[in-house]
Amino acid sequence: MTTSMKMLMLIARSERREELEIFLQKEGLQGFSEIPDVRGRGTTGPRMGSLVAPTVSSMILVMVAAERIADIVAKLNLYCADCHEHLRIAHWDIVVETMDELP
User: Fold this and answer.
1) DSSP code at position 84
2) For the chain, which terminal residue's Cβ has fewer other Cβ atoms within 10 angstroms, N or C?
3) Distance CA 99, CA 20 (A)
4) SS3 per residue for 40-64
């Protein structure tokens, strides 16, 4: 069985990780994957986990029903405006394959 959904990717300062996890849970999005200590360079500057650029980001990935994505993104944008957080939000179509139960 296949289901069409969206993959939501959030990239934020690692200090905001727990707040984002709480946000997702309040929205009923219980399952997510996190990639901690994401390094890179963007509009906020370098985040390399080094002496020169000590900060890092976290990346959170969560599957969202396509009909909910607009509402979730709107709420995330409000969250960012309220706490002045720079949060990168991206989403794309995915197909979820559901395996039948094993015997």
Assistant:
1) T
2) C
3) 30
4) EEECCEEECCCCCCCCCEEEEEEEE
